[in-house]
Amino acid sequence: MSGLFDVSGKVACVTGASSGLGRRAATVLAQAGASVVGVARRAADLDEWQQEAGGSTAAVAADLSDRERLASIVESIAEPFGPPQILIHAAGINTREPADDVTDAGWDITMLLNLTVPFFLSKAFAPAMKEKGWGRIVNFASLQTTRAFPGGIAYGASKGGIGQLTRAMAEAWSKDGITANAIGPGFFPTELTAAVFGDEERAQRNAAQTCIGRNGALDDIDGPILFLCSDASRYVTGQVLMVDGGFTAK
């Protein structure tokens, strides 16, 4: 039964691997025996991640918002271990601009990083996954995939798009052995949520809205990651798994 969750010998790529849930996902996969390529802008933070994770890892320091370089980034990702069979899209941005103050630049970078890059990176690696007849794509959704938060109109639109993108990827590629699912985290202590956790009253208010009664800890993501990246989820595709302590259940 334990073999269901085995990812040893697989090649994985995790974007946003320098911090937060992306870093945690990259570490979990490396410690479970996968060869992991971490992608992020900050080379120094990627170095720290590699030291923390151990195992078989490689780092690609790149700005995913530079669409002109996306083809070369794809080549860099495949260079250390070959094309990945597991692809986790954890890189993202939240500009937190109120609806009346949304700028062209803020909107464009949000859609590019949160929605466009996950599709085109997946499209680039789908042929190699099809050849093997096995692939796992894990997108990062959000509470705002289905809920509207103040200052979140661009972010929420991008994460609502991730829900549909996940279903559309599943429709397109699952017949070839590639599952596409998304994780929808609740409130976890990351760089993106620093403002939330910096306000103790606000953090407690969010915790009280969950069914479990607390906010997320980074290791709460470990099981869902291993589930969605392994054979344990072989008949699960096109789904958004909310890892939110029941926040969206209330």
Q: What does this protein look like?
A:
41% of the residues lie in helices and 16% in strands. It is an alpha/beta fold and 250 residues long. The chain has a single domain, classed as NAD(P)-binding Rossmann-like Domain (Rossmann fold, 3-Layer(aba) Sandwich), CATH 3.40.50.720. The chain has a seven-stranded parallel β-sheet, sandwiched between helices. The longest helix has 29 residues, at 104-132. The two termini are 33 Å apart. The mean pLDDT is 96.
Radius of gyration: 17 Å
The CATH topology name reads Rossmann fold
Q: Regions with pLDDT < 50 over 5+ consecutive residues?
A: none
User: How helix-rich are the residues, as a percent range?
Assistant: 40-55%
What is the architecture at the second tier of CATH? 3-Layer(aba) Sandwich
The tally of beta strands, per DSSP, is: 7
Shape: globular
Main pleated-sheet profile: 7 strands, parallel
What is the number of domains? Answer: 1
Structural class: alpha/beta
Average pLDDT over all residues:
96
Regarding CATH, which class? Answer: Alpha Beta
Q: Work out the helix count.
A: 8
Order of strands across the widest beta sheet?
3-2-1-4-5-6-7
> What is the end-to-end distance?
33 Å
Q: Can you identify the CATH superfamily?
A: NAD(P)-binding Rossmann-like Domain
